[in-house]
Amino acid sequence: MTEQKTRVFLVDDHPLVREWLTNMINQQPDLVVCGEADGAPQALQAISAVKPQVAIVDITLKTGSGLELVKDLKQSCPEVAVVVLSMHDELLYAERVFRAGARGYVMKRESTTKVVEAIRCVVNGRRFMSERVAAAMAEKLVEGPPPGATPVASLSDRELEVFELLGQGKETREIAASLHVSVKTVQAFYARIKEKLNVNTERELLREAIRWHDNRA
Predict the structure, then answer these.
(1) Calpha distance 122→57 (Å, rounded)
(2) Which of 13, 23, 97, 102 is found 20 to 30 A from 60 (Cα to Cα)?
(3) pTM score
(4) Class of 6-142 per CATH?
(5) What is the CATH number of domain 151-216?
């Protein structure tokens, strides 16, 4: 009797990344890609129907938010183990995705073996994170936030998403469309972010967002 393969669903806004992941995963004798999507709404619907064991989710998506998708999957498909695959390696994001319900966190620049290792780890009920992230989380637990920690850490998940999109050069209407909220809601986020970051105008906010994004690129 042939052993059933672990079914993996991919959620990433870049077709080349999805192609790379598909080729790499399908080469494994125990894994198979069963579907893919580039946005959160499509992914949630497809995953609910396909019911994979593992979902690989990027934080930045074509439509919607990867972080919100993780939360939605925890509510609607708790049996699906989520691994976040991201270009962001900051403790800021790692903590948030685990709080949201993810079981694993892998940086895109890590080796392909880490992705495969993460899939096999979470499908067996364990958590997976890189040694660097694990060390940073342990250090923060023992010593608290590092001196001079960025005020960006004080932003809520949704505020951070808006700030990130603003730093990418997105206009207000684009941010609203991407997150499926109104322009007025995005402007309300701007007001709260300005207060937390102690900036006075939207021009200053944009400059801070671009600087923060560029420093992490």
Answers:
(1) 14
(2) 23
(3) 0.82
(4) alpha beta
(5) 1.10.10.10
Which residues, in sequence order, are bridge partners of residue 85?
106
For tokens 């322009």, name the residue: 183
pLDDT digits (tens, 9 = 90+) for 170-193: 999 999 988 888 999 999 999 999
Listed in sequence order, the residues at least 6 apart from 112 whose beta carbon sits closer than 8 Å to its beta carbon are 24
Beta bridge partners of 82: 55
Would strands 104-107 and 81-86 be described as parallel, antiparallel, or unpaired?
parallel
pLDDT per position as a tens digit, 8-19: 999 998 999 999
Mean per-residue pLDDT of the chain: 88
Tell whether the model's pLDDT for residue 121 goes beyond 90. Answer: yes
Order of strands, sheet of 31-37, starting from the edge strand that comes earlier in the sequence: 31-37, 6-11, 54-57, 81-86, 104-107, 128-129
